[in-house]
Structures are given as structure tokens and as C-alpha cells.
Specification:
- The protein has 17 helices and 34 strands.
- It is of the alpha+beta class.
- β3 and β4 form a beta hairpin.
- α12 runs antiparallel to α14 and α15 crosses α16.
- The chain is globular.
């Protein structure tokens, strides 16, 4: 899972503040502080600080699923609490090298991050939003924002930050003598979603909180579950408010008038019609100019209605749920999650408390190791793995997903039991195994195309629980796809009728994105994003050391595309998912299938709608017909002629609840892509 914190570095931009010789703003914060990183209730890393004089040194490191960031920071503050010299070095989650720094000299501020360098001439203090710093720097922002008018300040490179107090709370002190006063806050303005964190009564950092990831003061790990619940509550409150404000439940018939309908079975677009929705279903398709009594009329204006899209490689959460619906993604296949968090999210979506896709659950089964992921159920034996199958079956899961640290020798027994219970089986190739073994074990589907291809380039003793499962893709260019070992694997796919979930878009980002350049696939929407999100779309995922490595990754991506084209030609079923959160990235996945794999626009739209509904056994979805659930979206153009048309969505219906992206996107700092259609109530 990709984890991000809004991390704020604050920079004084006034000459006189640099020259002032006064007591350090850190006078009350001298010494060492230690924090624990907890993911899924497991301790996975640390953050340590040392403050001496006017300088804070930070050491930040955590590892989950064999990867994670390693950062060191040095921050020099002036007397008012603004950093005047700040350096960040280390590596990102996927190994991209970090060498970010900020300085101020005279009236000139200058900074360098992964996107390049920038400067500003200033005369008053201003905040700077960093790209790679640790969550600790939120406390530096908070101390300044607390004193600012309306708790808001302008930031560089662009935009404003706002601090919002959430609530006060008390917890027992470690000493057992009395209680520790805490206050939770949210910072907004630099990214799509708020960052939540906690300060104590002395404005010292206590925790950074999300529903899954916690950074908490050492010694207080026993309250991390309570802190996670706070983050869950804040996120829920935010999205409940958005749902109340922007979800339109009209309580009567809704007619989308003068609109073409994409026929997902036949891959054609109809003549103009009107589509009638009552409750959560489509009840009629009538003449374009037909009308009725006591109904809401939405003007289709000659556009096209498309069935809701399926994101088949999702890891669901509050933050992405609404954004996916707005992008026309009305169904998710969740490929591994915190089971309690996921169950709670599904309940909120089904009860209309939150907006979100329909979610089909796969139960995550992982083996215990120093590299294991902290999702689902982590097991230490074949017996425990088989018990996990029973658990997921009893909870009504659609299937199970096996992961990297699990012993591959257990796969045949797990698959056998899962199939006896009618459960679907997919997953990664466990470390020290290969795709052939999983295909012979009976996997119904293989996830991630690199997981299959690594078996053609790795030695048996090489460990894919680490970043090697990504970096070893540099070996792909030398592959002969007509070689016996490759053809043997592809033959097993065909023989066993095993599908492939390639997640092509994430491979494109991993292998082709470069620091300072717009990430491939982001060109069509980057200008619509808030400033810091735009910066994030100009950063490489992996470390590209030199020209030779650059060439190797580019050629490796070409080999991946060549492999998928060969699989398509052999009739191997390709399942569209991203592992990138869906939404705009799912649009890109589908676009890649057209531009690089040879699907027609109609074929790829059919694959992402009707075919996926059939694949998951959901007969009430996938097409726009009377009696089917009203999951669809409206675009001004014709996506059968231009696949990019699915990116300009004017309206979405998810089960008869209507959303207009142009209304909601500004809440995330996103500039809408098209206008709201005319609605007559």
C-alpha cells in the first residue's frame, strides 16, 4: 500500500529574522524524543529526534511488506520558529533517492526537491511545503499556524495551509500520576485530504494518525488503537458531511434525457434515448424526448451513458471511495485490507453514510516473516493458513489472496480447500517459488505481471519479499519470449484457464516516471490537481541511478507490454486493475490496454464493465438495461470513438444516488473537468 503524510516544513522568509540574535524558539524543546511507527497493530519502525540549540535532527525509518522510507533531516530554526536551513536525505518507499534542501539568504528563498529547483523573493514570513520530510514537521507548522490569523498562512510553492482544531482529550500519563492533556488537529490545503496529528499541552508532538498507520510517542503504544479510531472518526465525519451535501437522492423518478447508451455486450452506442431510474434500478429506456409526471430531468445533451467501471485491484479506504465514484468507478474488488476497517467501510457505504463503490472482498493471507505485510490474516503454518480460509468463508468473502511471505508449498492445500468452499484464489508468487508452481497449484488468477515474469529471470534462492521483486525487472530486456521456459508458463495459463491481473499502470509509473517530469498517464489531469499533488506527480517511484539503468527500465517496460500482447493473443483473460487507488489511474489502465495492448475502445469498455460483472458473478451490473442496478456515468463525448472521453464526467449514478463531480471536486482542491448537466427538479 502506498502511504503518504502531508509533511510541512516551515521556512522563514524575512531577512531580519535570520540576523536576529535571540533565544532559540526551541529553548523549551531540548533533548531527545522517540516515536514508534505502528501499522496494522504491528511495530514496524521509528522516528527519533535530537534537539540542541536551534537545530532539530530527525531519524525516520519504517518497513512494511519489505519496503518503506528511510529519512534523515536536519532543521535549523530561527527565533520565531521558522526553519532557515533544512536538509532531507534518504530513500523513499520504493528506493528513490532523496536529497531535498531549503535555505534562505537575504530576501531570497531557494529549494530543491525531486521535481527540480525553485526560488522566491519575499519580504514577509511564509511557509514552505516540503516533499519528503517526516510527519514530525507538522508540529512546526502547527506552532506557527496557531498564532496566525484564522489559523491560515500562505505557502510556497503555492496555496495556503489551514489548521483546524478537532478536539481535546486526556489519557493516563506513563508515570501513572495524573493525565496527559492532548489536542488533535487537521492540516489542510496542500493535498487532496487532511493530515491528522496530535500535540500535547506543551505543543510537543505526540502522534500522527490515520486509520491504519500511527506514529506515536514511545511508551504510549498501548493507546494506538484509540488514536487510530480518532482518525477513522475524523475521516468518516468529513465524508459524511460531503455525502450529506453532495449526494442527491431525489425521492422520485429520475430521467436522463437525450443521451446515447453504451451497449457493453455489443460494444456499440445507441441512438439518443432517455433512461429512467426509480429507486436503485433502471426501470425504462424510452425515446429521447419522452417525459413523465413528477420526475427529475437531467439533460444528457447528446452525451453518452456508460455502465459503472470496475477497479479490480483495489485496497479500499475512506479517502479514495468518493473520488472513485466521481471518476465513474462504482465497483471495487478489494485485494487485501485491514479486515475490521474494511467491514466498517462497507457498512457505511451500504447504509448511505459514505459514498463509495460496491466492494467485493478477497481475504488476504500472508506468512509471518521479517518482511511480511500487515494486512488480513498473518499465518505461521499451513494449518493456520487453512484456518484462515475457513475464517474468510464464514465471513462471506468472495475469495482469498496469497502473498509474498507465505510458504509456497502450502499453496496446493490452500487452493484445494478454498475451491471446495467455492472461493476464488489469486495472489502473488510467494518468495522462493515461481508462477508455474502457483498455476499448477490451481490459482484462478495471477496478480501483477512482474510476479509471473520474475520466475523467468530469478535464481531460486533470490528473495522477492524485498524490493528485488521490483528492481529485478531490470533483467527483463534480455528475455526471449519464445524460449521454452516462457512458453511453458504461458501454456499453463491457457491450459488452466487462469486469468492475469497485470496492473499495467503501476508498472508504467514505476518504470517510466522520472524526477522532474510529469508521471506517464498524469498529463491529462495534473493541471486540475492542487499544488502539492502536482508535485507528487513529478516524482519517480524507483531509484534510477544512471543512463544505463534508465535504459534498462524503459526496455523492461516494453518487454512487459510485449508479454501482455502475447498473452492477449493466446486468449489469456486480462483483468483491469491498478493497485494505484483506481479513479484517474483506472482510466489510464484502460487507455494503456487500447494504446499498447491492442484492445479497441469498445472492447476495453466492455472488459471494465460487463465482462467484470460476469467475472464476479454480479448479473445485476455491467449493462444499462431495465431491471439492472443504476450504476453509470455521463460523459459529453463518445468513448467508443475516443477512450479519453471517460475522463470528463458530468454525472454519476451509484444505485440511484446522483453525484455531480463539478460540485464535489473543489472540496479536494481539484478543478472540475466538465460542467454539471442541467437538472430540472
Amino acid at each position: 500500500m502506498k502511504l503518504r503524510f502531508l509533511v510541512i516544513a516551515l521556512t522563514v522568509l524575512a531577512i531580519q529574522s535570520c540576523k536576529k540574535e535571540t533565544i532559540s524558539s526551541l529553548a523549551n524543546y531540548q533533548g531527545d524524543e522517540s516515536y514508534t511507527v505502528i501499522l496494522g497493530e504491528n511495530k514496524v519502525g521509528y522516528l527519533k529526534t535530537n534537539t540542541a540549540g536551534d537545530t532539530i535532527n530527525i531519524d525516520y525509518d519504517y518497513k512494511n511488506n519489505g519496503r518503506g522510507p528511510t529519512m534523515k533531516e536536519s532543521i535549523v530554526l530561527n527565533a520565531e520558529g521558522y526553519p532557515i536551513d533544512w536538509k532531507i536525505t534518504g530513500n523513499t518507499t520504493f528506493g528513490n533517492a532523496v536529497d531535498e534542501h531549503f535555505t534562505i539568504e537575504g530576501g531570497n528563498a531557494s529549494w530543491t526537491d525531486a521535481t527540480g529547483s525553485g526560488t522566491a523573493t519575499v519580504t514577509t514570513p511564509q511557509l514552505y511545503v516540503n516533499q519528503f520530510g517526516s510527519p514530525y514537521s507538522t508540529v512546526l507548522a502547527a506552532r506557527l499556524l496557531l498564532a496566525a490569523p484564522e489559523n491560515t498562512l500562505p505557502v510556497l510553492p503555492a496555496g495556503n495551509l489551514k489548521l483546524t482544531k478537532m478536539e481535546d482529550l486526556l489519557i493516563p500519563k506513563l508515570s501513572g500520576d495524573g493525565e496527559l492533556a492532548l489536542t488533535t488537529y487537521a492540516i489542510t490545503g496542500a493535498d487532496l485530504n487532511p493530515s491528522y496529528f496530535i500535540l500535547d499541552g506543551d505543543n510537543r508532538f505526540f502522534a500522527a494518525i490515520t486509520p491504519r498507520f500511527i506514529l506515536i510517542r514511545e511508551g504510549y503504544e498501548n493507546v494506538e488503537k484509540d488514536m487510530r479510531e480518532l482518525a477513522e472518526n475524523y475521516s468518516t465525519q468529513r465524508y459524511e458531511t460531503l455525502q450529506k451535501q453532495y449526494a442527491h437522492n431525489y425521492g422520485k423518478k429520475v430521467r436522463i434525457q437525450n443521451v446515447h447508451v453504451f451497449d457493453a455486450k455489443n460494444m456499440t452506442v445507441s441512438d439518443p434515448v432517455s433512461v429512467v431510474v426509480e429507486g436503485d434500478k433502471i426501470t425504462a429506456i424510452e425515446a429521447a424526448d419522452a417525459s413523465g409526471d413528477n420526475e427529475v430531468v437531467i439533460s444528457g445533451n447528446g452525451g453518452t451513458l456508460v455502465p459503472g467501471l470496475f477497479e479490480m485491484h483495489a485496497h479500499s479506504g475512506d479517502n479514495g471511495a468518493l473520488l472513485n465514484v466521481l471518476a465513474g468507478v462504482t465497483s471495487f474488488r478489494d485485494m487485501g485490507n485491514d479486515n475490521e476497517v474494511l467491514a466498517d467501510l462497507i457498512s457505511k457505504i451500504e447504509n448511505g453514510v459514505l459514498a463509495g463503490p460496491r466492494i467485493t472482498r478477497l481475504g488476504f493471507i500472508e506468512g509471518k516473516s521479517q518482511y511480511n505485510a500487515n494486512n488480513g490474516i498473518v499465518v505461521t503454518s499451513e494449518a493456520e493458513a487453512l484456518s484462515a480460509v475457513d475464517t474468510y468463508d464464514s465471513l462471506g468473502y468472495y475469495g482469498v489472496k496469497l502473498y509474498n511471505s507465505m510458504n509456497g508449498d502450502w499453496a496446493p492445500a490452500i487452493v484445494k480447500k478454498a475451491h471446495e468452499k467455492g472461493l476464488f484464489v489469486t495472489g502473488h508468487v510467494p518468495a522462493f517459488s515461481n508462477a508455474n508452481a502457483m498455476l499448477n497449484a490451481g490459482f484462478d488468477e495471477m496478480t501483477h505481471i512482474n510476479q509471473t515474469m520474475l520466475g523467468w529471470v530469478l535464481d531460486p534462492e533470490e528473495d522477492t519479499r524485498t524490493l528485488l521483486r521490483l528492481t529485478a525487472m531490470k533483467r527483463f530486456p534480455s528475455l526471449d519470449l519464445n524460449s521454452p521456459k516462457v512458453q511453458e508458463t504461458l501454456g499453463l495459463f491457457v491450459k488452466n484457464e487462469t486469468a492475469i491481473d497485470p496492473t499495467l499502470a503501476i508498472h508504467e509509473k514505476l518504470m517510466l516516471s522520472r524526477n522532474g517530469s510529469v508521471s506517464p498517464g498524469s498529463e491529462d489531469y495534473i493541471d486540475h490537481m492542487p499544488p502539492n499533488a502536482q508535485r507528487g506527480l513529478k516524482v519517480a517511484m524507483a531509484q534510477i541511478a544512471d543512463d544505463e539503468e534508465d535504459k534498462a527500465y524503459r526496455e523492461a517496460y516494453e518487454k512487459i507490454v510485449e508479454t501482455l500482447k502475447m498473452m492477449k493473443d493466446k486468449g489469456i483473460f486480462i483483468v483491469p486493475g491498478t493497485d494505484l487507488g483506481g479513479a484517474f489511474n483506472l482510466h489510464r489502465e484502460l487507455e494503456l490496454y487500447v494504446n499498447q495492448l491492442g484492445f479497441t475502445n469498445g472492447e476495453v469498455l466492455k472488459r471494465a464493465t460487463y465482462d467484470m460483472a460476469q467475472y464476479l458473478g454480479q448479473a445485476d451490473l455491467g449493462t444499462l438495461e431495465p431491471g439492472k442496478l443504476a450504476d453509470f456515468f455521463l460523459v459529453p463525448g463518445n468513448p467508443v470513438e475516443d477512450i479519453k472521453a471517460i475522463k470528463t464526467i458530468g454525472m454519476v449514478s451509484k444505485g440511484g444516488t446522483f453525484y455531480y463531480p463539478s460540485e464535489v471536486y473543489p472540496e479536494f482542491g481539484i478543478t472540475p473537468f466538465t460542467e454539471k448537466p442541467e437538472v430540472k427538479e
